Amino acid sequence: MNAIAQPGVGLTVRGLRKSFGDREVLHGLDFEVRAGERFVIMGPSGSGKTVLLKHLIGLEKPDAGEILIGDEPVGASGVMDRYRMAMVFQSGALLNSLTVGENVGLYLTEHRLKPAREIEQIVADKLALVGLEGLQDKMPGELSGGMRKRAAVARALVIEPQLIFYDEPTSELDPLIAVTIGEEILRLNQRTRVTSVVVTHDRQLGFGIAHRMALIFDGEIVALGTPDDIQASDHPEVRRFLSANFHFDKEKVSP
Amino acid sequence: MFQNIGEILTLFGRSLRALPCTWRQRRKVLEQLFEIGNASLLMACVLSLFIGGVLALQTGPVLAERGLANFIGQVVGLSLCRELAPVMMAVLIAGRIGSAMAAEIGSMTVYQEVDALVTMNINPVHYLVLPRMLAIAIALPVLVLFAILIGWLGGALVSFYNYQVAISFDAYFTSLREGVDVLDLVNGLAKSAVFAVVIGVVSCHQGLQTIGGPRGIGRSVTKAVVNSIVMILILDYFLTRVLMQLD
Ligand SMILES: Nc1ncnc2c1ncn2[C@@H]1O[C@H](COP(=O)(O)OP(=O)(O)OP(=O)(O)O)[C@@H](O)[C@H]1O
Ligand SMILES: [Mg+2]
Description:
The structure holds 2 protein chains of 2 kinds.
Chain A: E1 11-20, E2 23-33, E3 38-42, H1 49-56, E4 64-69, E5 72-73, H2 79-82, E6 85-88, H3 100-110, H4 116-129, H5 145-158, E7 163-167, H6 175-192, E8 195-200, H7 203-209, E9 212-217, E10 220-225, H8 227-232, H9 236-243
Parallel strand pairs in A: 3-8, 3-9, 6-7, 7-8
Antiparallel strand pairs in A: 1-2, 1-4, 4-5, 9-10
Chain B: H1 5-18, H2 26-65, H3 72-110, H4 113-119, H5 124-161, H6 169-179, H7 182-208, H8 214-246
Helix pairs in contact in B: 1-5, 2-3, 2-5, 3-5, 3-6, 3-7, 3-8, 5-7, 7-8
Bound molecules: adenosine-5'-triphosphate and magnesium ion.
The site of magnesium ion has 4 residues of chain A, from helix 1.
């Protein structure tokens, strides 16, 4: 593995099905993510987005169908060695026994890609990027939920991946930080041409960064295309999902 | 429990294949060793003093009645180093260290930390299992050695002070030296090394299998300890049989 970032790698999903017990969660998904693309997956809670991501990075085995990274099946031996991949978990999934700094630098230290001094520097830079400067020596348990999420983003950025999966990168974040993270997702993609798959509920983020997006309802893709295509979709569920907004009656409050 | 044996053996095989990476994981092995020693050395010493003591207390009067008090060193010495110290220490460590391993790896599994390792292309067997297995395989025989020595001492104290036995330290240790040779010691330590591997692999396997939340972790810990102890006791019989043939 060399230090210079390699360009993104494409992803193909064909006929992906998955059941837990006798409940089918993914009902046969087909789509393709092109190399270097920013692909956004949106859908309501419980529709199977996290399960889908876990399949894409090889943490779950499909019951049927196949997933290709480049043109190799994701489960094949050595695929993880050939392509650098990263995932930002919905929960952050920092290692609780390590400090924040060790977590962020883990990929580099375990694979011995850089000398310790340099790793320290990179860790400091990436933490600063997500607004956590100087928190290297804290333990994950001492951070707030949103801070853990940001540390997880930093940990993924350090990998300089060719393929990156974000599971709800901006949930739990305040609007200011959410914007920073969104910009970082965009910048990483533009700088290294990393193929980025972003799962989110955040319509602003989704439409803001997507080249193309897929809407998934109940384990099925109901719409797929550019943000404009999706906006123009007349699928009723899609319309409902996109147009849902708070409508509070302004109460007449007596002073 | 027994349907898992295949998986446990697979995990054992994978950790054996990971052995060449030991050097890279040396810091973690040392950390684990330190933790194990810290958590169990004192307890092991105190317990073995009493185990040796009670052995002398049970056998001493019986031997003395028949005028065989002089053999007590031999009886205590042999049973401690061939059987009691390895088994008791293994049970102790299964409860003290196996449970901790299952809990730690179990919570890492439940909270997706293991998944995170996999996505970073870090093999959990190398990163989590190997250091623990090695550390326990080194630590348990050392603990057993301590336990044997201190158990002998406990036996000597009881043999001396118990009025029904009342033989001198000198007589006790002479008898012990006549009855126990280095091979017996090696025999006990070899057993304990096998037990250590059983505890390590069963606990790590159980940890990695954990599903569900905190309750799942609790279940894993219980299973890890119970399964380790059951396997240790069953294996003990067969190991003893085999080692007897070798003598
Ligand atoms: N390991 C599992 N065992 C059984 N069922 C599961 C498992 N993982 C997920 N599911 C089920 O699969 C469905 C989809 O879950 P998933 O986590 O993918 O939802 P999601 O789209 O990510 O939702 P959210 O937006 O709330 O994160 C849920 O109904 C969930 O109950
Ligand atoms: Mg999810």
